[in-house]
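Note to self: keep these together.
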Amino acid sequence: MAAGTQLLRIGPQGRVVIPSAVRKALGLKPGDTVLAWVDDDRLVLRPRRVVEEELWALFEGVEGSLAADLMRERRAEARRDAEE
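Structure:
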């Protein structure tokens, strides 16, 4: 195992305890939320706040409202469908 690797055991109800060293490294506190997903054969856990910050950064330079643009497109599409 790599340095810093933790061996975790899955409990009877499928629960896993995140060791304090890992929580500390990720800045996790009781009540925080993490996102979990499977990447190939890996289980990935990331703090929700970190993922949200990355997503907001992706759209930082976008001007206008993406929601308004989407609604405008959907209405135009509905009008075209109604005309057919």
